[in-house]
Design brief:
Order of helices and strands: HHHHH
Number of helices: 5
Shape: elongated
Radius of gyration: 18 Å
Distance between the termini: 51 Å
Amino acid sequence: MGTTITPKSIGTVRGSNIVPNVSPSALAGAAVASAAPTPGGLGAVEVALSTGLTAAGMSGTAAISAVLLFRLATFWLPVPAGWVALHFLQRRSVI
């Protein structure tokens, strides 16, 4: 039988059970993102999420690393794909 990886098992790998405590942090980060005057809540979301993760029991360096990796994947990586799609559509005179 294979091993199933769940969010709970990831949080308890090293004996810490932070997964239930992360949900309020994610909710606070989403609220800050919608209220911040910057595009995508840039800057404010990182502070809110890293503070929430630290309050949930993560070390500060791990929380900052996790948040920056999350924001890289969700905020910055779609930009080049969007640029390529825009360029493609402009060459085809769709836009």
